[in-house]
Design brief:
Length: about 270
């Protein structure tokens, strides 16, 4: 029986369409960014976030009212939402960014998510936001923390374990830290960001992929949310790192010391 103090939980899972992790990244000829005319898929850390939301529902059963996925991106980003829906999300929101527009920065994404959460207050107030700790394209790792700051909600980053205590409306979390784990208790509503060891995402079955096509996807724009997604930073130039030069072998210590001297490297006492 559900504790009277608790209510049904609503979970929001932001996901991002990113260049597939298996693709070799190349700089475009204009040197304005990377070549994006390649295979894209859901950011791997966001897959973990969707999986964790679905696992929470499997553990808590009827205590989870809804799992809603959201993405901010171009028209093709709806494919990423369909993947989340096939994995088990109930519905989705697509904040569409015009084709060819610069990718929004973490602060812009956080503001968009805050606007969505505030918009959902009346019909389905969000209790828990689960998102990847970083995206593999920009590697910024900032959105979750910025969102928590904007909402003034508690946050737990880089989590490897998550349990919900419905009676107390709090989460028991284990975070990845150097040399071990840190255990936290956080009151809901809460922002968490996922680490690799939290779970292993499932593959969406064919029946679920077909069902996902019928699940609702709401389309919005930045104007609908009253926000500006224009980047605050300007990228001047993108170049590939210099190619690594192979090392050499030395026969003994004396030869190594001589080579270091020839290279202008001297010992420091």
């Amino acid at each position: 029986m559900r504790p009277s103090a608790a209510r049904l939980l609503n979970i929001l899972v932001p996901v991002k369409r990113a260049v597939d992790y298996a693709v070799k990244i190349r700089v475009n000829p204009q040197q304005t960014g990377i070549d994006t005319n390649v295979k894209h898929s859901m950011n791997p850390f966001d897959e973990i976030a969707v999986e964790e939301a679905v696992r929470l529902r499997e553990r808590l059963k009827t205590e989870i009212k809804s799992i809603k996925a959201v993405t901010i991106g171009p028209t093709k980003a709806v494919e990423t939402l369909r993947t989340a829906l096939a994995m088990g999300a109930d519905s989705a929101i697509h904040v569409e960014v015009p084709e060819g527009a610069p990718a929004p920065e973490p602060l812009g994404i956080a503001k968009a998510l805050r606007a969505i959460i505030e918009r959902e207050k009346e019909k389905a107030p969000v209790d828990l936001v689960i998102l990847g700790k970083q995206a593999i394209d920009d590697d910024a790792g900032q959105t979750g923390q910025m969102l928590a700051g904007l909402l003034d909600w508690p946050q737990a980053t880089f989590i490897s374990k998550l349990d919900i205590d419905l009676a107390k409306m709090e989460a028991h979390v284990t975070r990845e830290i150097d040399g071990g784990g840190e255990e936290l208790r956080c009151k809901l509503p809460l922002i968490v960001t996922t680490d690799l060891r939290l779970n292993e995402p499932r593959y969406a079955s064919l029946p679920n992929i077909m069902k996902a096509k019928k699940k609702p996807v709401e389309k919005l724009t930045a104007q609908d949310l009253g926000i500006d997604l224009t980047p605050m930073l300007e990228t001047l130039k993108v170049t590939e790192p210099p190619k690594r030069v192979g090392g050499g072998k030395v026969a003994n210590v004396d030869e190594l010391v001589q080579k270091l001297k020839d290279a202008g490297i001297t010992a420091v006492a």
